[in-house]
Specification:
Layout (H helix, E strand, L loop, with lengths): L20 E2 L5 E5 L2 E4 H10 L8 E4 L12 E4 L1 H11 L15 H10 L3 H11 L3 H8 L12 E4 L17 E4 L3
Parallel strand pairs: 6-7
Antiparallel strand pairs: 1-2, 2-3, 4-5
């Protein structure tokens, strides 16, 4: 199958792209009985045994989809795999989601304005997204990972450090009048 020795890189990862074909999702695959099989599943089965019934997914401890180092792989439940995607930033959400109708900047703008339901119709035409999508994003029902609208404070203070601790908020933005 492989005519050369497989060696880990300087971080200890064995990148499948150097030794195997990659599928459309970026995972290393081989043809087995006329079917493409992920190499990570074969490696896990060989080094750590078959997948337990409650953990059917070959997951990566590292964030490299093509890594086939047995030390970087483990059997995971669907929930664990989802948590890994959030941790690694590989979960498509916000702008990176293929079905996204809004951008992160548009959502922050909507959260500043917080339009009522009727006003969302105008925003809908302007941004090219359904009225319900506009309302949900503006009021925090969707895009929950996105930051809240900044709290704008008109002040003469030069920095947030000059504002008393009890009045500070994590999303505090200072604005100065001209």
């Amino acid at each position: 199958m492989l005519n050369r020795e497989i060696k880990p890189d300087h971080e200890g990862h064995i990148r499948g792209r150097e030794y195997f074909q990659l599928n459309d999702d970026g995972y290393a695959v081989i043809n087995k009985n006329s079917k493409k099989v992920r190499v990570s599943r074969i490696v896990l089965k060989h080094f750590k045994g078959p997948a337990p019934a409650d953990k059917p997914i070959a997951a990566h401890l590292c964030r490299y989809r093509d890594c086939v180092n047995p030390d970087c792989l483990y059997w995971a439940s669907p929930w664990q795999n989802m948590q890994d995607k959030y941790r690694d930033g590989t979960m498509p959400m916000g702008d990176t989601h293929p079905c996204a109708r809004l951008t992160e900047r548009q959502v922050i703008l909507l959260r500043l304005v917080r339009p009522a339901w009727k006003e969302c119709r105008r925003w809908s035409y302007e941004l090219g997204a359904p009225q319900a999508t506009i309302y949900s994003a503006a009021h925090g029902y969707s895009w929950k990972h996105s930051p809240k609208a900044p709290l704008i404070v008109w002040t003469t203070a030069e920095s947030v450090d000059e504002i008393p601790e009890r009045l500070r908020a994590p999303n505090l933005v200072l604005a100065h009048s001209p």
